Amino acid sequence: GFQHRRLWRDIDIVLIAAEHGIRNALLPRGPFREPIGALARAHVILITRKTADTSESVQVEAEIGAAASRAVLGRIRFRVCGWTDLRGSPAEKPKGDVLVVSSIAEPESFLEMVRSEGLGPAEAFAFRDHHEFTEADVARIRVLARQRDLVTTEKDAVKLSRFSDMLPDAYVLRIQPEWESGQDEVMALIHGVLGEER
Predict the structure, then answer these.
(1) Spatial distance between the Cα atoms of 49 and 178, rounded to a whole number of angstroms
(2) pTM (predicted TM-score)
(3) What is the DSSP pairing of strand 122-126 with strand 13-17?
(4) 164 CB contacts (<8 Å, ≥6 apart)?
(5) What is the distance between the alpha carbons of residues 56 and 192, in angstroms, rounded to a whole number?
(6) Domains of the chain and any CATH numbers
């Protein structure tokens, strides 16, 4: 909703993936909906990273700090915190080759996270973002998977869970955010705006 200025808000929080940097183009050629100068309206800017290293994240933070000097900045990394099956029960990490199935905006970064887990060769099969899986989709996934285990996102697991009987070899890669910098400043601003005691 950042670009919808008529929308009432108490605070503007913008997330920017370090993997993109800030030199990318506007939609449809790039990931941004507004020019970088629009970040001057943001109260908080969080630089997130999945596969980028710390130095890339720090570089993006410095560039954004120059473009949005009034914003409070923070850095967050998403790290793998475990595996489950489609029903949410804890599971061991899959072994061998995997088929990575997702319907998220950036399937490439998820594929890289899966590969970083040291699994066998990982092939991706991506649906459009927000895709609602059908029984025909699941049948197609099973054909593509052959004898490989299936790996999916937590978001997609919610939609695929109704097909768990058809996908017994499906694993869900769980990730969680972890602050790298700025947590105290960001949370103080949020609590201050919301009028909450810490």
Answers:
(1) 10
(2) 0.84
(3) unpaired
(4) 85, 86, 87, 170
(5) 30
(6) 13-78+177-194 (no CATH), 80-176 (3.40.50)
- C-alpha dihedral sign at 69, 71, 75, 78: negative
Q: 156 by DSSP, 3-state: which?
A: helix
Cα separation, 117 vs 191, in Å, equals 36
Tokens of 161: 């869970």
Q: Look at strands 149-152 and 122-126 and give their pairing.
A: unpaired
- Span 153-178, pLDDT tens digits: 999 999 999 999 999 999 999 999 99
Q: If we measure between CA atoms, which residue out of 55, 21, 48 comes closest to residue 175?
A: 48
Cβ atoms of 123 and 99 within 8 Å: the answer is yes
- What's phi and psi for 56, nearest 5 deg? -65, -40
Per-residue tokens: 146: 């052959």
Residue in 149, 181, 128 with CA at minimum distance from that of residue 18:
181
The predicted-structure confidence for 80-98, as pLDDT tens digits, reads as follows 999 999 999 999 999 889 9
Structure tokens at 102: 């997702």
Q: How far, CA to CA in Å, does 98 sit from each of 1, 124, 195?
A: 36, 9, 48
What is the CA 113 to chain-centroid distance, rounded?
Answer: 10
